[in-house]
Amino acid sequence: MALPFEEIRAGNLGVRIANREAEIIASQRLRYKVFVEEMGASPDETARATGLDADMFDTVADHLLVLDHNKGEGEESVVGSYRLIRRAGAAQVGRFYSADEYDISCMENFPGEVLELGRSCVAVDYRNRGSMQLLWEGIAAYVSHYRIEVMFGCASLPGIDLDANAAQLSYLYHNHLAPEQIRPVALPSRYVPMDRLPRDAYDAKRALLDLPPLIKGYLRLGGFVGDGAVLDVPFNTTDVSIVVKTDLITSKYSKHYERKLGADDASFKSGN
Questions:
Q1: Which stretches of the chain drop beneath a pLDDT of 70?
Q2: Residue 270 is assigned to a structural domain of this protein
């Protein structure tokens, strides 16, 4: 299997695309541990029987893995995972995963290449800056290889208590709403307004600090949110749609990979 980039190493940790079925299964097992056992998602009968968080989108996705080589060279080394779905993969199953919650026609009709990010998880002992940095470097390398211009997906706030998440949802809506041409909108049947509090009714700095690390990471890259939150009851989360133009992530992390595209492609900068 030809991989889009070579493994990126940082000490005992590395990041690359899964290259065999056992590694994908290890990723699904890690997802089950994090989403079900730790975060309280409600598994269906198949997931409960197998101990895997798996669905049809896994078969058309690339799976970005963080590996701890001190734990071995097999599936036991998988300590982080991100699911990446390009347009061609989504076409095989008829839609992107996010279409269950959002009208993403703006992404489907986008003229350049797009990438859906999802199912991000890291084992509890590896939730630190180094692991997240590696994940972003892996995404940057992938983005450069496939010339992705826009990334999107769903990110989650813990729980489905709208009052508990009111300040964070309002902050995101007031400060990071996507431009209309790239703004997903929650489906009418699932739409929950995000502007739950007036601007002067919450502490914006506190709301930003209280956001999950993944959402703060997207915002640091200049990311936006779509219009409307969605309550994902089985996963016990409040979801928001995230949109990131890739020019910032590629300029920050992946000039090395852009140079590898070769002299004929030297003028290319993803996102421009």
A1: 1, 248, 250-272
A2: no
The pLDDT, as a whole number, for residue 40 is 87
- CA torsion angle 41 59 70 139 (round to 10): -90
CA atoms within 13 A on the CB side of 246: 31
Domain count, the chain: 1
Q: Report how far Cα 24 is from the mean position of its chain's Cα atoms.
A: 16
> CA 260 to CA 264: how far, in whole Å?
10
Domain presence at residue 66: yes
Helices and strands of the chain, counted as H and E runs:
10, 11
Cβ(184)–Cβ(226) below 8 Å: yes
Distance CA 75, CA 63 (A): 13
**Dihedral sign, Cα of residue 49, residue 120, residue 104, residue 227:** positive
- Using only C-alpha atoms, the chain has a radius of gyration, in whole angstroms, of 18
- The model's pTM: 0.88
Q: What is the pLDDT of residue 19?
A: 93
Q: Which residue has the tokens 């996102």?
A: 271
CATH of the domain at 226: 3.40.630.30
